[in-house]
From TrEMBL:
It comes from Jannaschia pagri. This is Phenylacetate-coenzyme A ligase. Pathway: Aromatic compound metabolism; phenylacetate degradation. Coiled coil: none annotated. Residues 339-429 form the AMP-dependent ligase C-terminal domain. Its EC number is 6.2.1.30. The gene is paaF. It catalyses: 2-phenylacetate + ATP + CoA = phenylacetyl-CoA + AMP + diphosphate.
Length: 432
């Protein structure tokens, strides 16, 4: 793999601000944001009033802990536009989540927000090793999802050339990668595995593909998946994190030269990690739920937004901004099986570590009598010993994750393929 470390001096000066200057900037921006939401968003005014707080209460960054949290429910109850902090006419764009339960959550951006967003995605791309003039294949979905358009404007802002492919049409993705020869790809890691399968299906060697780096996010993925993709394509695989409520892709990015967690762009977002049960702020280094306060957004700022993503904060390394560890999962994705907590990423690690299995899997939850049970659907590679693979995976899940489960071997292609964000868990408990 090529060395893609950014040249010294090519970074945005904000990325290496002294901590003291960064924190002073954060406090100024935090206070402006609080004034703005208190004056313009009835939900925030009501919450602050109920807690006996005004924007003036906050005189230090530590005072943030006095403010109430914002949740996805608050956004749902404000559907569609009540969280906007500017008149609707000043909103230049809306995005929305798919809304698996009930109404989608809607987010709105002013032109200034979109401008900052493009700057931050450009910053992420640079950290990932992309340079002005490079060709970049964007396979995040375009539309209400923030992935496609968010990445698109950042690629343009960096001065790179964007191929706005969007998701789907896997054979076409491979054709364009081979013909246009992009240096970088932006896509979910699970969909990258479909592209890998299509390469092999077309009889092409993925290791000779032109890609030098993949910028993968929008879903949890493991170091084992990184190794799988890096080896298969002979390319770097780095992590990009974000969520619509806070902005979209580009809230945090892993640097290609260190791959040591994701630097959170703290000049725009103030992170906290809390105990998900008590809401208490945890010290850096302790794992808990990630919470964000936006510092520069004008269209729809969020104050102490509970992401449900589980991670921990760590000091910066090649940037002064703090890092977050790769997200292990969302609290809502956690499966509780006979008292043991299981995340789909733990199963992903075990599947990828089992020789003889293709890197595709899906977890199915069923009822066996009164008890919940877990089935893991996998695909043994043709020509191998399917029974031995099943047994070895079952044993690894029992020994390392700590739960018993059934392993179901599907024919090649039998496990559902991701079209964007992978559907890792299918809950059939009400059907069994
Ligand atoms: O997924 C934004 C995005 C697009 C990020 C493209 C990166 C690349 P939402 O659809 O609102 O936004 O989903 C946000 O996805 O709270 C996490 O649970 C999960 N997520 C996003 N990035 C990562 C990541 C976009 N790198 C939700 N690792 C978040 C783990 C991630 N989970």
């Amino acid at each position: 793999m090529k060395d893609l470390t950014p040249a010294p001096g090519s970074l945005d000066p904000a990325e290496t601000l002294d901590r003291a200057d960064l924190e002073a900037l954060q406090l100024t921006r935090l206070r402006q944001t609080l004034q703005h939401v208190y004056a313009n968003v009835p939900l925030y005014r009501a919450k602050f009033d109920a807690a006996g707080i005004t924007p003036e209460t906050v005189t230090t960054l530590a005072d943030l802990a006095k403010l109430p949290f914002t949740t996805k429910d608050d956004l749902r109850q404000s559907y569609p536009f009540d969280m906007f902090a500017v008149p609707r006419e000043r909103i230049a764009r809306v995005h929305a989540s798919s809304g698996t339960t009930g109404k989608p959550t809607v987010v709105g951006y002013t032109a200034e927000d979109i401008d900052h967003w493009a700057d931050l995605v450009a910053r992420c791309l640079r950290a990932a090793g992309v340079r002005p003039g490079d060709l970049v294949h964007n396979a995040y979905g375009y539309g209400l999802f923030t992935g496609g358009l968010g990445a698109h404007y950042g690629i343009e802002r960096l001065g790179a050339t964007v191929i706005p492919m969007s998701g789907g049409q896997t054979a076409r993705q491979v054709q364009l990668i081979e013909d246009f020869r992009p240096k970088a790809i932006l896509v979910t890691p699970s969909y990258m595995l479909n592209i890998l399968e299509e390469y092999r299906h077309q009889g092409l060697d993925p290791r000779t593909c032109p890609l030098e780096v993949g910028i993968f996010g929008a879903e949890p993925w493991t170091p084992a998946m990184r190794a799988e993709i890096e080896t298969a394509f002979d390319m770097h695989a780095v992590d990009i994190y974000g969520l619509s409520e806070v902005m979209g892709p580009g809230v945090a990015q892993e640097c290609v030269d260190t791959k040591d967690g994701l630097h959170i762009w703290e000049d725009h977002f103030l992170p906290e990690v809390i105990d998900p049960k008590t809401g208490a702020v945890l010290p850096d280094g302790k794992e808990g739920e990630l919470v964000f306060t936006t510092l520069t957004k004008t269209g729809m700022p969020v104050i102490r937004y509970r992401t449900r993503d589980l991670t921990r904060l760590m000091p910066g390394t090649v940037r002064t901004h703090r890092r977050m560890q790769k997200v292990t999962g969302r609290s809502d994705d956690m499966i509780i099986l006979r008292g043991v907590n299981v995340f789909p990423t733990q199963i992903e690690e075990r599947v990828l570590a089992t020789p003889g299995l293709a890197p595709y899997f899906q977890i199915e939850l069923v009822k066996q009598g009164q008890m919940d049970a877990m089935r893991v659907h996998v695909e043994p590679l043709p020509g191998g010993d399917a029974e031995a693979c099943k047994q070895s995976l079952q044993k690894a899940i029992k020994d390392i994750v700590g739960v018993s489960c059934d392993i179901i071997a599907a024919d090649p292609g039998g496990v559902e393929r991701s079209q964007g964000k992978a559907r890792r868990v299918v809950d059939n408990r009400s059907k069994s």
